[in-house]
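From the shared-data thread, chain only:
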Amino acid sequence: MIIKMLVGLLSGTTASMGLGGGFILMIYLTTIAGVDQMDAQGMNILFFLPVALVSIFMHMKNKLIDAKPLASSIIFGIIGVLLGICVAFLVQVYWISKLFSLLLFIFGIKELFHKKS
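Structure, as tokens:
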């Protein structure tokens, strides 16, 4: 129970800071909790939505978000999620897991060698 609480706290904290809390949650769910990749991704999205709303509210309150592009970003983000769900149902869970691993690997390599401006 304590591990679950720590994973939830760490995931929520890092997600609200934009540091990839979903990554932590996905690793925990698939490797430690033994949850299927598709179910873990669904839980990750459900976990992300309230954190994203709180983060948007806090960043707007601190005047860190330009409200003009916010509506179109939300609309196209929802469209992207719906398209992703459709693709996920067409692809076998085995390949989704492999594609997710490849995506994490590519982003990891990019972060290692990308120079910050």
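Residues 2-113 form one domain.
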